[in-house]
């Protein structure tokens, strides 16, 4: 069907295809059966924002995420080599790790298993087909009609399979960084990025931005229906929203966890070495410029002054301030920025936009 091209990802064509495949049959059926704008049983399809958002927003965004993650990989994985963190000795093993993980990513078996799991989950979830969000799809006898069957047996498996696919990608990234961390990286503990030269790994969560937006939008759409039509309060949604933010953050930070051991070991080793260097310079400075007992040239001293000891102290301070966790503002912004708009839209249903913006401005100032 030329949905997946031989060259490239075919993101746009696949996103449009799956959006139409999932939503259009349901919408046409609802219009024909008079269930789109109003319904004599349950609620009309138009009021169930979760159905529309899942088909037209979440599923396409889960496909678009493939492009952003691919872009992050192409842009930042070579930085291991360009920065010298992977040197000439470890380069062959580094390339071998990349090839092996790429082979796992391209393998068909994991994806077939995820499709099977999605189908099995759909067949086993009998209660899901009776959920409130399906009230637009029942006939007078309480049986699902075509629109409901399409949602249950087409839309849900596609969505669940895509979510499982993203969990698989997170696992692959975690394995990738775990194996890279065992190569013997040449970190620079005095690097001004305070991460030993690994500043670029903070951009990894940005590759999942469309995925976070998709999940947040789907959750927010269902909560919006409950607030508008069933009187649910914002207070009752605080815990689910917080749990989502926490779990999603932990998932995106999981690939970076294997690097903690490497960074901690590099900092521990460097602290002793740099402290010894600063101490030796201090003794030489005192010997030459205070006691006057130094003889011959001292490689650690400048002939005309003692400025080099200040530089060494700065380097030691840089080592002391090196983080042992490769997470900073960049990673946190990449995690929370995509999921914030849908959640703020939920708040805006009850809180006026002006008051909401003023509250955010005060919190940031």
Characterise this structure.
With 365 residues, this protein is mainly α. It has 2 domains: 11-256 and 328-364, no CATH class; 266-320. It contains 12 helices and no strands. α2 packs parallel to α6, α2 (49-76) packs antiparallel against α7 (209-230) and α6 packs parallel to α9 (258-291).
Identify the notable features of this structure and list them briefly:
mainly alpha, 12 helices, 0% strand, 2 domains, single chain, 365 residues
What's the end-to-end separation, in Å? 53 Å
Main beta sheet, described?
none
Number of helices: 12
Shape: elongated
Number of strands: 0
Estimate what percentage of residues fall within beta strands: under 5%
Radius of gyration, CA atoms, in whole angstroms: 28 Å
Along the chain, the helix and strand elements come as HHHHHHHHHHHH
User: Quick check: average pLDDT?
Assistant: 86
Q: Percent range for helical residues?
A: 55-70%
The unreliable regions are none
Integer count of domains: 2
Helix vs. strand class = mainly alpha
């Amino acid at each position: 069907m030329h949905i997946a091209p031989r060259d490239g990802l075919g993101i746009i064509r696949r996103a449009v295809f799956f959006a139409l495949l999932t939503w259009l049959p349901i919408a046409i059926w609802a219009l024909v059966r008079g269930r789109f704008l109003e319904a004599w049983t349950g609620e009309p399809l138009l009021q169930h924002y979760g159905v529309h958002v899942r088909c037209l927003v979440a599923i396409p965004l889960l496909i678009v995420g493939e492009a952003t993650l691919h872009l992050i990989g192409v842009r930042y994985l070579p930085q291991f080599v360009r920065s010298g963190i992977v040197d000439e000795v470890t380069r062959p093993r580094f390339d071998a790790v990349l090839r092996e993980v790429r082979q796992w990513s391209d393998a068909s078996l994991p994806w077939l298993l995820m499709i099977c799991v999605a189908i099995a989950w759909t067949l086993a979830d009998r209660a899901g087909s009776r959920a409130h969000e399906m009230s637009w799809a029942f006939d007078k006898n309480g049986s699902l009609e075509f629109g409901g069957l399409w949602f249950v047996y087409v839309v849900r498996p596609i969505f669940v399979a895509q979510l499982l696919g993203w969990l698989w990608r997170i696992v692959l990234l975690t394995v990738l960084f775990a194996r890279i961390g065992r190569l013997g990286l040449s970190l620079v503990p005095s690097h001004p990025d305070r991460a030993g030269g690994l500043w670029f790994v903070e951009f990894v969560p940005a590759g999942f931005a469309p995925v976070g937006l998709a999940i947040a939008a789907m959750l927010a759409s269902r909560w919006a229906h409950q607030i508008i039509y069933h009187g649910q309060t914002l207070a009752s949604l605080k815990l689910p929203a917080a749990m989502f933010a926490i779990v999603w953050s932990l998932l995106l930070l999981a690939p970076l966890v294997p690097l903690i051991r490497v960074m901690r070991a590099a900092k521990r080793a460097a602290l002793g070495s740099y402290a010894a260097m600063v101490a030796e310079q201090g003794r030489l400075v005192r010997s030459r410029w205070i006691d006057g007992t130094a003889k011959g040239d001292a490689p650690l001293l400048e002939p005309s002054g003692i400025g080099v000891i200040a530089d060494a102290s700065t380097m030691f301070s840089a080592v002391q301030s090196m983080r042992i966790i490769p997470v900073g503002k960049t990673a946190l912004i990449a995690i929370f920025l995509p999921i914030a708009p849908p959640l703020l839209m939920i708040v805006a249903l009850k809180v006026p936009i002006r008051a909401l913006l003023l509250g955010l401005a005060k919190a940031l100032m």
